[in-house]
Amino acid sequence: MQPIISIRELRKNYGEKQVLKGINLDIHPGQIIGYIGPNGAGKSTTVKILIGLLGDFEGEVSIMGKDLREDILSVKSMIGYVPENAEIYEVLTPMEYLSFIGKLYGLDDELIEERAMRMLQVFGLLENKDQRMDTFSKGMRQKVLITSGLLHNPQIVVLDEPLSGLDANAVIIVKEIITALKRENKTIFYCSHMMDVVEKVSDRIVLIDEGSIVADGTFSSLKAHGDETLEQIFARLTGKQQSGAGVDEFINALGQ
Ligand SMILES: Nc1ncnc2c1ncn2[C@@H]1O[C@H](COP(=O)(O)OP(=O)(O)OP(=O)(O)O)[C@@H](O)[C@H]1O
């Protein structure tokens, strides 16, 4: 089967600093990839390259057989992106914002309105659909961002910490949306620090540390003797087991 996303020897430098050191990944249609790693590992940099926001990289990235550098517009139309935080146009209402985003993707007004209303209803935001978003909580804005990332019904969905600020009910809804998208054979690239959710929703987990992939497999294949959770696998593979000692030092410092 042809991979829907193919990444070869991906490298990215910021000045002298190499933040991606040769990433190789083939992702197949219908897979949910949990892309995890410590702070600063290079997750968001990978995501920004995938969605076409960062063009200045080395290596090859192709999406549905199209080279990212050569066909950036058609690649963008196949991808839906949900960021953790985005500059949302706060003076707009959700309907105005979604209409703006939908038109950028070439959807017609009627389709935008129908989809937006139905999607906002799922998140309990229908009654706020004509309210300016500068009055919205962080979670309400996040629900609008999720809706806007999926509105054009993309084949590939890239989620960068999408649960940020969401309440428990909304987290359940988003987890269900992710598994429903998989049933529709969508491919999901899911970047998060919430190990319990990644463990539950991902078919395959890719762990990146200091710009290199250090583990790639299913949750059960990554388990070693004694591991029960993805959190434990993460700690073992990234060498962060000594957290207890660090916390003591943090608290002791307050006593000085
Ligand atoms: N615009 C930039 N200029 C310079 N360095 C950057 C820039 N963006 C990111 N970096 C550096 O690149 C490295 C990788 O950052 P990146 O945001 O990809 O990490 P991450 O894995 O997403 O981290 P987090 O989990 O904290 O979000 C970090 O060392 C970061 O300081």
Describe, in plain words, how this protein is organized in 3D:
The strands form two sheets. The chain has a six-stranded mixed beta sheet, sandwiched between helices. Strands 2-1-4-5 form a four-stranded antiparallel beta sheet, with helices on one face. The chain has one domain (5-254): 3-Layer(aba) Sandwich (Rossmann fold). By secondary structure, it is an alpha/beta fold. The chain has ten helices and ten strands. Strand 1 and strand 2 form a beta hairpin. Helix content is 39%, strand content 23%. It is globular. The structure holds adenosine-5'-triphosphate. Adenosine-5'-triphosphate (ATP) is lined by residues 14, 19, 37, 39-45. Adenosine-5'-triphosphate is lined by residues 14, 19, 37, 39-45. It comes from Chitinophaga chungangae.
Q: Point out poorly predicted stretches.
A: none
The helicity comes to 25-40%
Count of domain modules: 1
Instruction: Label the overall shape.
Output: globular
Largest sheet: 6 strands, mixed
Major beta sheet, strand line-up? 6-7-8-3-9-10
Reading the helices and strands in chain order gives: EEEHEEHEHHHEHEHEEHHH
SSE inventory with pairings:
Elements: E1 5-14, E2 17-27, E3 32-36, H1 43-50, E4 58-63, E5 66-67, H2 72-78, E6 79-82, H3 94-104, H4 109-122, H5 138-150, E7 156-160, H6 168-183, E8 187-191, H7 195-201, E9 204-209, E10 212-217, H8 219-222, H9 230-238, H10 243-254
Bound molecules: adenosine-5'-triphosphate (ATP).
Pfam families: ABC_tran
GO molecular function: ATP binding
InterPro entries: AAA+_ATPase, ABC_transporter-like_ATP-bd, P-loop_NTPase
